[in-house]
């Protein structure tokens, strides 16, 4: 199982939210690059960077942070948050992102999102499928669409997209355990899915449970910052 640390960015700073609520913002570092360099020093090679300002604004905002991280580390960065247009995508890739995550656009403008897949290939595009009560949430998780999670994922899998980051929003930042049953259900119902679980990891045992369930990847954020998951815990999977 691949461990992917997360850096969420607001006002150029490394932050974490609880359940996607911007009012719960907690700043962990004024400089996200310092955090990225620490992860690189641990031997981690992947990084998940989310532009929370961009997610709310509907366009890329913190691309300079992305540029600094990619310019000063060798980590493979996937970037998401507010990517709505081909111009946003161009900025993200030119700033160093190896992959981008599209969430809201996959719901609100599927034709554009499918063009991204065809243009850049499924290796560089990740589907952001974030759920609240089983429904896909969009616009920085401030809106819930009427689309059911698994049919939504399955439809894009049939279009050739196999990498999916899924967050159960009710668990995000709560450190109370991941939505293991949901992830197992997704893996059983969508053949060949490269699922990256996100949200809820609060201890090393949560990582073990996800690994034993055969989940290909997991994003870990707050548990690292709160020292609930240590470097030694992560090294078991590197």
What does this structure look like?
- The chain is an alpha/beta fold and 238 residues long.
- It is 37% helix and 30% strand.
- The protein has an 8-stranded parallel β-barrel, surrounded by 7 helices.
- A hairpin with a 2-residue loop joins strand 7 and strand 8.
- Helix 1 packs parallel to helix 3.
- The protein is globular, with a radius of gyration of 16 Å.
- It starts with a strand and ends with a helix.
- The mean pLDDT is 94.
Tell me the number of strands: 12
Largest sheet report: 8 strands, parallel, barrel
Molecular shape: globular
The percent range for helix content is 25-40%
Share in β-strands: 25-35%
Task: Compose a concise summary of this entry.
The protein is of the alpha/beta class and 238 residues long.
């Amino acid at each position: 199982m691949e461990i992917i640390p997360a850096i969420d960015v607001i006002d150029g700073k490394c932050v974490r939210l609880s359940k996607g609520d911007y009012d719960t913002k907690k700043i962990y570092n004024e400089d996200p690059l310092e955090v990225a360099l620490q992860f690189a020093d641990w031997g981690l090679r992947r990084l998940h960077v989310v532009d929370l300002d961009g997610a709310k604004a509907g366009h890329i905002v913190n691309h300079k942070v992305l540029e600094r991280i990619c310019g000063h580390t060798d980590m493979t960065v996937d970037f998401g948050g507010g990517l709505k247009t081909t111009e946003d995508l161009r900025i993200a890739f030119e700033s160093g992102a190896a992959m981008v995550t599209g969430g809201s656009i996959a719901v609100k403008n599927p034709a554009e999102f499918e063009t991204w897949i065809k243009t850049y290939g499924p290796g560089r595009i990740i589907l952001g499928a974030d759920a609240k009560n089983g429904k896909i949430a969009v616009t920085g998780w401030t809106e819930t669409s009427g689309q059911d999670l698994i049919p939504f994922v399955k439809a894009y899998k049939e279009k050739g997209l196999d990498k999916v980051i899924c967050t159960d929003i009710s668990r995000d930042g709560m450190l109370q355990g991941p939505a293991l049953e949901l992830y197992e259900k997704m893996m059983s119902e969508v053949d060949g899915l490269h699922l990256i679980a996100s949200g809820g990891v609060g201890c090393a045992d949560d990582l073990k449970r996800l690994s034993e369930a055969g989940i290909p990847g997991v994003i870990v954020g707050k548990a690292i910052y709160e020292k609930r998951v240590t470097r030694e815990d992560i090294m078991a999977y590197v």
